[in-house]
């Protein structure tokens, strides 16, 4: 799965003021990513506000994205949730044209046991025509995929090929790297800790901040991939403030405001999210000026 090495981006879903999907801005965003050097794109990860989209909207975004990309970079589809049967049905019926893998977030709210998490992904793996990337983000799901469960899934299912780790636990990352099959990939799911994760052995990042700053994120990831961690530090450090501001008022409100300032989209989000506060917007503008 060389397609999953390097800098990936979890695309936001642009909306018009009436809440409908803004496909013109989505096209601009995709071109911004490709021009900025992103190695692959993730369509409708959780950053894409996928929980607020209906089935028809999801398929429209996946189809539009595949047509816009037109094979220029690899594409990953985000298909996950806490209703296993529904996720399995969505994956089984997914049109894989133009896509190389599926990113599936661990079940949220239900707080399943490790055996429940294992059985959830087992059902997904058995239904999928594409390789699966696990997504562990306990701050949002309410439970964590343990290293032992990650390794068990990697060993039992050849089409479970990677994990996007956003647990923030370096003990967890270290256990995964120690015990994983040789071809199983660790991917950072957290922008500000990508540099040290890659030093540990992660193969790259699926980024939020790259929606706005693909060139800078690609530079950090590619420089780390070349083993030059000292060379990556300056760009890594320059992005810390803007990264924090992207998450102050919930993701993706901050990065959508940055994109609006860049004339790539708008800051419209769907309830229960609301746009970033004015105080956050002011701080973002100051931070953007410092990055120019």
Low-confidence residue ranges = none
Fill in the CATH topology.
TIM Barrel
- Please give the share of residues in helix: 40-55%
Backbone shape? globular
Number of domains: 1
Radius of gyration: 18 Å
Q: Biggest sheet, open or closed, and with what strands and sense?
A: 8 strands, parallel
Q: How many strand elements?
A: 8
Spatial strand arrangement across the major sheet: 7-6-5-4-3-2-1-8
Structural class, judged by helices and strands?
Answer: alpha/beta
GO cellular component, one term: cytosol
Enzyme class: lyase
Function: Catalyzes the condensation of (S)-aspartate-beta-semialdehyde [(S)-ASA] and pyruvate to 4-hydroxy-tetrahydrodipicolinate (HTPA).
Organism: Sphingobacterium corticibacter
Question: What do you see in this structure?
Answer:
This protein has 292 residues and is α/β, with parallel strands linked by helices. It has one domain: Alpha-Beta Barrel (TIM Barrel). Helix content is 46%, strand content 13%. It has 13 helices and eight strands. It has an eight-stranded parallel sheet with strand order 7-6-5-4-3-2-1-8. Helix 1 packs across helix 2, helix 6 packs parallel to helix 7 and helix 12 packs across helix 13. This is 4-hydroxy-tetrahydrodipicolinate synthase. Homotetramer; dimer of dimers.
